[in-house]
Amino acid sequence: MSIPLFKATFKTNWKLLLMFTAVMIFYSLTIMFMYDPVVIDSMEAMLKLLPQELIKAFGYQLQVPSYVGFVASYFYGFLAVGFPTIFTVIVGYRLVGKMVDNGSMAYLLATPNSRFKIVLTQAIVFVLMLALLVVGIIVAGIIFSEMRFPGELEMDKFLLVNVTLFFYLFAISSISFLASCLFNDGKNAVLLGTSLPVGFLIFQMLRAQGDTLEVFKYFTLLTLYQPNDIIVAGYQPWPMVALAVIGFVLYSLSFVIFKRRNLPI
Amino acid sequence: MLYSSKKGVTDVSFNVKDGEVFGYLGPNGAGKTTTIRCLLGFMKAQQGEIIINGLDSWSDAAKIQMSVGYIPGEMALFDEMTGIDFLHFLLQMRNVKDKTRLNELLVLFDLDPKGKIRKMSKGMKQKVGLIAAFMHDPLVYILDEPSSGLDPLMQQVFVNLIKEERKRGKTILMSSHSFEEVDKTCDRIAMIRDGKIVLVEDIDIVKQHRRKIFTVSVSNPSEIVKMKQLGISVIFENDHFADVEVMGDFKPFFDALKQIDVVDLNVKTQRLEDVFLQFYGKEGDFR
């Protein structure tokens, strides 16, 4: 890894990270603030007034009427994957594809650092940023919960939901990163890097409608991240392992491809 | 090296000797930048090999960069950084701590690098790029159209810098699309056309065979008649000016001009193709 490049890349992207983390924490705390054990039934009643398809699409279905179950449904069901998806798409493109497209990659490769070292550094910054994002939500969530509802938050389940979220983001970031390493033309990198992660969200919304649309679960990585199921079933290793393997394979593939490619810079 | 569009570089072979300045000339789209991308290891030649300082340009790319300074043809810097941050960053990437050369170059090119690169003019960006190539004092320079975007004063500064670096024993390859740009600095030149090298020659020999065209303005038309009588080769004439071609030795031309009432004298810049064709035409099939 190259330390100077690590610092420079972090410096270029930390403002965006801060912005997304702040928005995520804001939403997460808003949802937590809305929880009230007394009125939870009336809230369910209110949601019943809305179109059920919409409720399902956003995962707003309370499986377990506990505090953590409430947060898992209303925050982690959609918002917690939706916002970071935008973040991974933007940053993933910036890290490699944009620099190849505008030619500034030439300056990095004209220094005595191998291509592998350069893309590895970019990937490390990327994954670290996703980790910081999730840690930010965890810390803010725990502090807020302990202040408002001391002892109410089931820590193990809350952490499990967040750690699995991190592995999901790791997996989709590897897709954006691969797209970023694959193409000369920035347009193609953006197209592939965006369409898959956003497609996963859309297919998730469709599969949640159940019945015949259930088939869409085979087209979305979000099948591996179902916060409601985590709350019900507790720790299950395989979705996390699967997401981690996908991420490792695609990141490795990105490195190999970038190392061997002709670069028109 | 062929692109998928079947354009590219198909027949390129030359070597640059230690301590010489080598001009790599060709019209736009001839394959100069593609050749240089292969030299830097950004692209892999499908056939043949490229050796720099005894190392293979593809497999040892990172190692080669230790002793190479490079200016890309397209100036795309890190827009969000300031000029000085960018230069410091590149020094760190090279693990070079000595900033004396950097500071000398900032003074030489009269550059204030504190502003954001995004807000810099093309000329300023080019200066940043030049300094980035020279600041670690490498042994070899690979410069892709290095003086584009510089004003005439800075072009002169650049020419002097090249001469100075040559004196210090550096090896320099620079590409250009104009002969005038390289004839002040280069020892030898190669010309590339449609992806093929068509000429590799000492600059002095090329200059000897080079035809120059001057536009001579005179006080009245009879002077043009007089010029012809004095043996000057007039290729185009109007009432008050004539285009004159001069080959090799300029002395007879200037001697003749002394007897003419000259109002103004200009050199016509020639296309690279013309320079090449003249040379090729005179020397025949010398390759």
Largest sheet of chain A: none
Compute the separation of the termini of chain B in Å.
22 Å
Let me know the CATH homologous superfamily of the largest domain in chain B: P-loop containing nucleotide triphosphate hydrolases
The main sheet of chain B comes to:
6 strands, mixed
Give the mean pLDDT of chain B: 86
How many separate domains of chain A? 1
Give helix % range of chain B.
25-40%
Q: Strand order, biggest sheet of chain B?
A: 4-5-6-1-7-8
CATH class of the largest domain in chain B: Alpha Beta
Order of helices and strands of chain A: HHHHHHHHHHH
CATH arch. level architecture of the largest domain in chain B: 3-Layer(aba) Sandwich
- The chain-level mean pLDDT of chain A equals 90
Strand content of chain B: 15-25%
The fold-level CATH name of the largest domain in chain B is: Rossmann fold
Explain what the structure shows.
The complex is a heterodimer of chains A (265) and B (287). With 265 residues, chain A is mainly alpha-helical. Chain A has helices at 3-34, 40-48, 52-57, 67-76, 79-102, 105-109, 115-148, 155-182, 186-207, 227-233, 237-260. Chain A contains eleven helices and no strands. The model of chain A has no long low-confidence stretch (mean pLDDT 90). Chain B has 287 residues and is α/β, with parallel strands linked by helices. Chain B is 34% helix and 22% strand. In chain B, strand 2 (51-52) and strand 3 form a beta hairpin. Chain B is globular and about 70 Å long. Mean pLDDT of chain B is 86; it is low at 282-287. The chains are: A mainly alpha (265), B alpha/beta (287). The A-B interface holds A 2-5, 8, 12, 102-104, 106-115, 117, 262-265 and B 3, 37, 40-44, 61-63, 65-66, 68, 70, 72, 74, 76-81, 89-90, 92-95, 132.
